[in-house]
Design goal:
By secondary structure, this protein is α+β, with helices and mostly antiparallel strands. The chain contains 14 helices and 13 strands. It has 3 domains: 153 residues, Alpha-Beta Plaits (2-Layer Sandwich); 61 residues, DNA polymerase, domain 1; 144 residues, 2-Layer Sandwich (Dna Ligase, domain 1), CATH 3.30.1490. The strands form 3 sheets. It has a 5-stranded mixed beta sheet with strand order 5-6-1-7-8. Strands 9, 10, 11, 12 and 13 form a 5-stranded antiparallel beta sheet that branches. The protein has a 3-stranded mixed beta sheet with strand order 3-2-4. It is globular and about 65 Å long. It binds magnesium ion. Magnesium ion binds next to strand 1.
Length: 414
């Protein structure tokens, strides 16, 4: 058996851990630059706020229902996610972290336990240790545990279990488009074959599923029958690239500002590279103007480093060269970014005759990373990344980074 544990309205739940006054109130979280709604609490959903809607279109609704609006705070969500996942790891020897707010827990060998009760225990401990409410779906395959999770979300107690005795009863009303891995186009084509529910899909002919669709569809049908075909992925594939890219709060027209932005993103990308103990062989730099203007322009340039590196200063040299190449004085840039390519584990890196003495620059990077980790991102940085950064993303309603930044931890008055 396995359990899919999914955080309920994760971003808004994470916000409410530190802002309990908004529990039971509609809460929404906005995308970068405070553009669109990317998450909503159940109360916000109930008043009809849709995912992806531009926030300016729902100003009336926000005012009328006193909706609490937050800019996205990914430092907070990432850290809260890690807390939830490490709590879950207490309950199973093997788990697959599937996304920022979902994990599959392997419960094989737990047959002596009442799994529903175990699910309740997991929920309660996660709630107590992290403040995040979760729903748990338990079954014998990934696909069925996803279905069970849907049902758990609808039920009051947050845990549901599908076993051979009760599965049919639930699949009979379960819409086929809600099944994990069935996209909109598949569900439309299945409907053309008269297949609208999970039960109808479960009972199709296997070879037909394979011929009409793919081997993946065939496996999905088997999974609905309770035969595991998708195993847990315990070793995530190694990263192939690292991208850092943002829209600006306002258009950038000067080379100096574009260089600042590119340098800021490159520094962040290099930091991630070191966190994963990787080095990069090349960097791609790109910038674009507004998609909504007639003179839409985008350009990118890829530069190979002299040697595989994780050193910010070294990567910056190439990033800025790339920036100078794509800059056009007549254009208003709206977004830019960098992608680090040719990643490999630092331990397996080919050494080069031309690189500076190993050790010195490593020590400098480690020191910078340690300072920024302790005192907050950007405490120490390369001057070329700019100090004021007036072009930086708008996040006017961001909550504090309660759990990752010393200067923003909650204050208790007594
Ligand atoms: Mg979720």
């Amino acid at each position: 058996m396995l359990a899919l544990c999914d955080c309920n309205s994760f971003y808004t739940s994470a916000e409410r851990v530190f802002a309990p006054q908004f529990i039971n109130q509609p809460v929404i979280v906005l995308s970068n630059n405070d553009g669109c709604v990317v998450a909503r609490s159940p109360e916000a959903k109930a008043i009809g706020i849709k995912i992806g809607v531009p926030v300016f279109q729902i100003q009336d609704l926000i005012y009328q229902h006193k909706v609490q609006v937050f800019s996205s705070n990914y430092s907070l969500y990432g850290d809260m996610s890690q807390r939830v996942m490490s709590t879950l790891a207490e309950f199973t020897p093997t788990l697959e972290v599937y996304s920022i707010d979902e994990s599959f827990l392997d419960l094989s060998g737990f047959g002596h336990l009442d799994l529903i009760e175990y699910g309740h225990e997991i929920r309660q401990v996660v709630r107590q240790w992290t403040g995040i409410p979760v729903s748990i779906g338990i079954s014998s395959t990934k696909t069925l545990s996803k279905v069970a999770n849907h049902l758990a979300k609808l039920s009051d107690d947050g845990v549901s279990l599908l076993n051979p005795e009760n599965t049919e009863k639930f699949l009979v009303d379960f819409p086929v488009e809600e099944i994990w891995g069935i996209g909109r186009s598949h569900s439309r084509s299945l409907a053309n074959h008269g297949i609208n529910t999970a039960l109808q899909l479960r009972d199709v002919d296997l070879s037909w599923a394979r011929k009409e669709y793919s081997v993946l569809m065939q496996r999905l049908v088997l999974e609905l029958r309770g035969q595991p075909c998708f195993s847990l992925e315990l070793n995530p594939p190694p990263k192939k690239s690292i991208t850092v890219s943002r829209s600006f709060s306002r258009a950038i027209a000067t080379l100096a500002e574009l260089r600042e932005a590119i340098a800021t993103y490159t520094s962040r990308a290099a930091e991630k590279l070191r966190q994963h103990e990787l080095t990069a062989d090349a960097i791609q730099v790109f910038a674009l103007t507004s998609r909504f203007k007639a003179d839409y322009y985008s350009d990118s340039v890829t530069l190979t480093l002299d040697y595989s590196s994780d050193n910010t200063a070294e990567i910056l040299r190439f990033a800025l060269k790339g920036c100078d190449r794509i800059y056009r004085p007549e254009l208003q840039f709206k977004k830019a970014g960098v992608i680090l390519l040719g990643l490999m584990p630092k331990s397996q890196r080919q050494l080069s005759l031309w690189e500076p003495e190993e050790g010195r620059s490593d020590a400098l990077m480690q020191t910078i990373d340690a300072i920024n980790e302790r005192f907050g991102r950007g405490t120490i940085q390369f001057a070329v990344a700019g100090l004021e950064k007036p072009w930086a993303m708008r996040q006017e309603m961001r909550s504090n980074r309660w759990t990752t930044c010393w200067s923003e931890i909650p204050v208790v008055r007594s």
